[in-house]
Amino acid sequence: MTACGIMLAAGAGSRYGQPKIFARDAGGVLWLERVVAAVRAGGCSEVLVVIGAEAERAREVVSALDSVSPVVAGDWADGLSASVRAGLAAAANTDADSAVIAPVDVPGMPASVVARVLEAGAGPASLARASFDGRPGHPAVIGRDHWELVAASVRGDSGANRYLATHAALAVECADLWDGADTDTR
Q1: Which of 102, 153, 161, 182 has the most CB atoms around it within 10 Å of its CB?
Q2: 65 in a structural domain
Q3: Could you tell me if residue 155 is inside a domain?
Q4: How high is the pLDDT of residue 184?
Q5: 3-state SS string over 59-90?
Q6: Which domain holds residue 88?
Q7: Do 71 and 10 meet the contact criterion of CB atoms below 8 Å apart?
Q8: Number of domains in the chain
Q9: What pTM was estimated for this model as a whole?
Q10: What is the Rg, in whole angstroms, of the alpha carbon atoms belonging to the chain?
């Protein structure tokens, strides 16, 4: 079974003050680099990064990373759903049978969380997501059998949460590995 990573990084980052694809940690490392490294080490052979806001500058950032492919969500301003649709459409052109989806604003996400969720939910029919003390979080693993249905179901600034909830996605408890925190503001 093969999995590709889909990093959602197309937004303008209005609450953060800039597109989060350009955000760096205290040591100067791009959040994107940290999330891509975790997804790779967690089991994804290929990584797609969905970009949109400041697309040319974002493409330069993505192109500087090894073996990472940019995917442009032309309708990124429509919200998170545009990024999910663009990422899943690009994943359909890979050999992957599942996709690990995470936003760029989880730079603390360890590879062990990705590996645990992927191990529990790999395969074309899979639906799984990390859970932190019962609270749904990132990443989510979506099997190829669901990609078109997820893409058709997302709207506006909502991702796959509703689809995952209504289709009984496996909740994979990861609170022993990480707190699941994302970063919305500086």
Answers
A1: 102
A2: yes
A3: yes
A4: 79
A5: HHHHHCCCCEEEEECCCHHHCHHHHHHHHHHH
A6: 3-173
A7: no
A8: 1
A9: 0.97
A10: 15
Distance CA 46, CA 73 (A): 18
pLDDT digits (tens, 9 = 90+) for 23-56: 999 999 999 999 999 999 999 999 999 999 999 9
Average pLDDT of the residues in 99-120: 98
CATH value at residue 14? 3.90.550.10
Say how far apart CA 90 and CA 32 lie, in whole Å. Answer: 18
Whether 142 is covered by a domain: the verdict is yes
Residue 167 has pLDDT above 90, yes or no: yes
Domain membership of residue 185 (yes or no) is: no
Show the beta-strand stretches assigned E in 52-184. Answer: 68-72, 98-103, 127-132, 135-143, 170-173
Tokens of 89: 């459409």
Which residue type does 22 have?
F
Least Cα distance to 154 among 58, 72, 89, 70 occurs for 89
Q: Please provide the DSSP assignment of 4-27 as one string.
A: EEEEE--S--TTTTS-GGG-B-TT
